[in-house]
Amino acid sequence: MVATTHQQAHEPRRSTRWLNTIERLGNRLPDPFMLFVALAVVVLIASVIFAAVDASVVLPATGENQPIRSLISSEGVRFMLGSMLTNFTGFAPLGLVLSMMLGIGLAEKIGLLDVLIRRTVMSAPRQLVTYTVAFTGIMMNVASDASLILLPPLAAMVYHGLGRHPVAGLALGFASAGAGFTANLLIVGTDALLSGISTEAARLIDPDMVVTPVDNWYFNCLSVVVLTVVAAQISERITEPRLGTYQGEVERVESDEPASAGRGLRNAGIAALLYLGGLATLVLWPDSPLKNDDGGLIPSPFLSGIIPIILLFFITVSVAYGVTTGKIKTSRDVSERMAEAMRDLGGYIVLIFAASQFIAWFGWTHIGSWLAVNGAELLTSINFTGLPVIICYILFTGFMNLLIFSGSAKWALEAPIFVPLFMQLGYHPAFIQMAYRVADSSTNIISPLNPYMVVVLTFIRKYDREAGLGTLISLMLPYTLAFLSLWIVMLVAFYLLGLPFGPGIHALMP
């Protein structure tokens, strides 16, 4: 319990012993950029060894015999030098993420997302505050990592104003935004980023395979509803009773939103309705250019162009809000705010340069195909297939999240190995991507390497000066365990019932 000073002072010390070990191990890992550089070197060395023993793999789909190619050869050197730039510029996630951030970054920089979050949470009916905070946190991954530092202090402030324990609100905001990071009713940047990496990995086996940003959409929509209810119940039945009644006082944080924010939100809402209405009209119009040749939407130019459509949506509502509030006075302001958002992605772009080389080298050498085919044959020979191997993979990824926090970095590491491997076992790459996402999201909030845990702990100490990392971990564990368990049950249910994870995407290969 966290209700007494004695327990607050001693319980964290006991609970952080094993976390300190994980933190020390994690801190020994190199920076993600250097990690990919090291992995590329490993692939280079492995390719020489495999080629020296004339290793090869027979692709089950075509019967083609693929020899392992050495990167230290005339052909390999020409490939590494000749493809380095195209590996980077042609890396599928890069353009998708940069495009999404042009729109979402604009909305963030002019303050639209901040004001929208404040108004949504603070105007909720008293009896629905818990559910509103949980729902808002889960939906806030549209703002990427910004959700992890925007919502928790706001939720604490709302709870305090209602006479409830502010740490309970803070914990709920952080847990729903962090552990529920992969779920959303909208198609967001995470969908674009992960599906791009999945496509690159899947093409190691099937050159025509495409994983689109909407392939996990149905599952994510259901997850929003289920996780909102579960997170609210954990908060009301476990977290708040454990914390007890809050007796202290804390300085209120005043909103710095502009006086015209209300009119800005109104005009942004009108712009959103007009945009969506025009889009719906264009989609439903007979002989619409957004439909396929058969008049359908799966697949269609509408789905393949979903990222530009979302980009234009965010630009439209952001401009409407910015002009109304005075945050955008000239067209130059729009480009400057977008440039600010792009500068925030500098670290990601550097990381992608190394990741793109690793994945390209991994594919060119055929080592990925060799591992996938032989790994699938091994699992089949020992009869370790079906749901048990998927559940083991989820648990493995959840553990890896304690050592490598970046979701995109982990998926870039895992996808070239596990996507081809599970494709050989008959699973669609979108299903494996979903398994990865639920494992990665669930353990976000207990990873010692999560940089936002320090920020959230600082917020907690405004209300409990003796709080430590163990305090935060103990608050987050019920959410992690509940989210992970529920997601595994949902994945199993979707698999057994043959339900689609997104438009036309089922658990098994077509």
TrEMBL record:
PANTHER family from the UniProt entry: P-AMINOBENZOYL GLUTAMATE TRANSPORTER (PTHR30282), P-AMINOBENZOYL-GLUTAMATE TRANSPORT PROTEIN (PTHR30282:SF0)
UniProt key word Membrane: yes
BP GO annotations: p-aminobenzoyl-glutamate transmembrane transport
Gene Ontology MF terms in the entry: secondary active p-aminobenzoyl-glutamate transmembrane transporter activity
Keywords for the protein's UniProt record, in alphabetical order: Membrane, Transmembrane, Transmembrane helix
Membrane-spanning segments: 33-53, 88-107, 128-151, 268-285, 305-324, 345-364, 384-405, 417-436, 442-460, 472-497
Lineage: Bacteria, Pseudomonadati, Pseudomonadota, Gammaproteobacteria, Oceanospirillales
Protein name (database record): p-aminobenzoyl-glutamate transporter
